[in-house]
Amino acid sequence: TADTSPPSVTNLTISQSTIGVAGTVQVVSPDNNLQYIEVHFSNQGINGLYNCSIRVNRTEALQSWYADVTTAQNADTAAGRTCATVFTGTGVQTIWAKVEAYDWAGKKAPVPTAVHPISTTVNWTPAIASISPLDGVNGQTAGIQVSGTNLPLTMAVSITNQAACTRTSATSTFATFSCPLTALGSNTLTVKTNTD
Question: What is the pTM of this model?
Fold first, then answer.
């Protein structure tokens, strides 16, 4: 039989997940002829530019997905349409998601529909939950641990009157630093989003 019907998006969900977004998607093809499924992201409104996307499995089953600045693909790097423009910033913002799905006959799933595009409110403002230890021995190196949410991978720690600290690991929820302690007395420990 001829391929007569385009794919149809039957499910799309989205919510904040650490420093990215996650959700589910389901696309069905009446002709069992899916070529690919992509979820596209924008922070410029429902009709704004969708600067970032992920390709999910070519299946008609409901499937989970996750996207952030490191896992998704830029729409057009040369034109500045990148995932960094979507998955950055602080404060509350709205992220929009829509699906592009094609079958092998070149038919595209309609957009918009009652299922998509959809949006979620996110807040990627970094928040520190704990810093430890808060003391150390002069002449030794302290292993400083910072935990929290939405921590930038570029985070830096410094201690007044001490040698420079070095970041040894970083995720969106936990970072470690190696800090040589070279001066006696009480000093101020500062955490910044980056070294600038």
Answer: 0.76
